[in-house]
Amino acid sequence: EVQLVQSGAEMKKPGESLKISCKGSGYRFSSYWIGWVRQMPGKGPEWMGIIYPGDSDTRYSPSFQGQVTMSADKSISTAYLQWSSLKASDTAFYYCARKDGNSAGYFQVWGQGTLVTVSS
Amino acid sequence: SYDLTQPLSVSVALGQTARITCGGSNTGINSVHWYQQKPGQAPVLVIYRDTNRPSGIPERFSGSNSGNTATLTISGAQAGDEADYYCQVWDSISAVVFGGGTKLTVL
Predict the structure, then answer these.
(1) Most buried by CB count within 10 Å: which residue of A6, A13, B60, B78?
(2) Predicted local distance difference test score (pLDDT) of residue A101
(3) Taking a C-beta distance cutoff of 8 angstroms, is the pair A119, A13 a contact?
(4) Dihedral sign, CA of A76, A78, A84, A86?
(5) What confidence score (pLDDT) does residue A91 get?
(6) B64 - beta bridge partners?
């Protein structure tokens, strides 16, 4: 079964760093782009960027460039999303998703989401 | 930036047909994908590339795309179809764009 399993919920204080993970299984992890999506409470999904685990080629949404860092370790089939200094406004669910199809592809496999809560 | 416009809400009587639209800000919108999201759950792909249904998605879900507007149609809506629905495209600089979402209520 193809699946993405994300790390558990996190509760952090403003200014702290954080790295969340997304582990793929059931397919060749290095051959599919992994996208990251933010969903703030009560809002729609926002695309943060995408990474190709095969060579770590990364594309960021302009809205998130410089705010987060995406990485991947293909040897353990895991993608990461990290922050160096969290803000309260980073409180949201974060989803990883596998991109299928061509350049205008779609996201058929999603992780279960990681809730990040940033509060003093 | 590229914008996708969806109605905030759509209501449909049980067993009737619901149509959710997704309008592009430029001429024509290509290769639209649709996701269903229920409270507390991750999005689920229900239509890809305008008209294609992934394995496991009921036949009552269908999609179309003409001119500036893509449409998700749910024929014979069920109570379990109540959810938020989002359309998605890739814009000219290869960025993913989601619509604002439509809340479907089944009466």
Answers:
(1) A6
(2) 85
(3) yes
(4) negative
(5) 97
(6) B71
